[in-house]
Amino acid sequence: VSLIHINILIAFTISLTGLLIYRSHLISALLCLEGITLSLFILAALTILNSHFTLASMIPIILLVFAAREAAIGLALLVIISNTYGTDYVQNFNLLQC
Amino acid sequence: MNPFISIMLLSTLVLSTMIVTISSHWLFAWIGLEMNMMAIIPIMMKKPTPRATEASTKYFLTQATASALLMLAIIINLMYSSQWTIMKLFNPTASILMTMALAIKLGLAPFHFWVPEVTQGIPLTTGLILLTWQKLAPISILYQISPSINLHLMITMSFLSILIGGWGGLNQTQLRKIMAYSSIAHMGWMTTILLYNPSLTMLNLLIYIIMTFTMFTLLAQNSTTTTLLLSQTWNTMPIMTTFTMLTLLSMGGLPPLTGFMPKWMIIQELTKNESLLLPTLMAITALLNLYFYMRLAYSTALTLFPSTNNMKMKWQFYPTKQMTLLPTAIVLSTMLLPLTPMFFILL
């Protein structure tokens, strides 16, 4: 609604665009995923503090926990991929095409 | 895999879907969906082949994006209504974002690109879990927010799914990809009726799960993953050819079999709501689905495909794989049509 919210939403949109359009490395997609979860954290904390919704103050921290889980599993998959291919170039993901 | 880890992963999978379906707080629904993704990725990597790794990575990326979009929709809903109860959404932007996020999770078009590739890269039973159990959680959320979903977006996505599920499956010989495209088409049928009568979505989901479970269990008996291997089943287990044919025709939606029931109900509900062009087009494009099922049934059951041995049949051993619930599932997926009035308990 206000300008700060629009700012954080633009940050989310830029990170989302970075996640959807990554050129050669898989790790840049994981990085943009982290950017997305960071902007969501700030947006949630902002909304909850703005409306003095004290009971929900725990929620951004729980969000951060699950963001860390996603990052961990993303990195684990990245490690397995670089075990088989040596790099994380996305052009190598062509085993499963028709 | 170590049985302790396997039990832990499967129980987390079941628990996460239960969390999503019974929760009334948006955060818990989101947590359930995250746990769902976390639990199934190690199951998909049971044998760490490069194909399974690639499938897991593609699945992870798409589902993580969908979770992030879902969280954004939840927070926008919070901004405009300042409450976390799962009921209808209070902002059209949040509604559109959440519908798109759940469509990515389900594999509706235009977000369907991950489904064939991920289904292809994983073992058959894991593919079964992916195509049946994983659909329960997003559809339960869609069911709960159904009063506030944008009609045009939903109808566009579901009709596009039916088209793409029909056309995409035509050029495939790999059975897992065929099942993936069939899943996309059935999801399209399910989400068409969501805004008019959500209990028919549940009916379609139930019948679809039964039919897909039957199909995958039949395929897992011989470990067949291509059409070529499937056409050899007359040699090893001749009775499976009949069951495969009946199940495939039921999935295509032919009348005396169960698969006709959800299609009939959906077309009836749509015509009650005065949309005539959409069910006509849906029924016509369901023929595309029926074509590739018929092709599979033809090469499996209606012809004796040339095989490598000289005898007409191989020596019949006792089956070593467990046919869990297979007779029950076959009966349920072919003979349930006369019991249609029973499904009013879903209302």
Structure description:
- The complex is a heterodimer of chains A (98) and B (347).
- Chain A starts with a helix and ends in a 13-residue tail after the last helix.
- With 98 residues, chain A is mainly α.
- Chain A is 71% helix and 0% strand.
- The model of chain A has no long low-confidence stretch (mean pLDDT 89).
- Chain A is elongated.
- In chain A, helix 1 packs antiparallel against helix 2 and helix 2 runs antiparallel to helix 3.
- Chain A has 3 helices and no strands.
- Chain B has 347 residues and is mainly alpha-helical.
- Chain B has one domain.
- In chain B, helix 13 runs antiparallel to helix 15 and helix 14 packs antiparallel against helix 15.
- The radius of gyration of chain B is 20 Å and the shape is globular.
Features:
heterodimer; A: 98 residues; mainly alpha; 71% helix; B: 347 residues; 16 helices; EC 7.1.1.2 (chain A); ubiquinone (chain A)
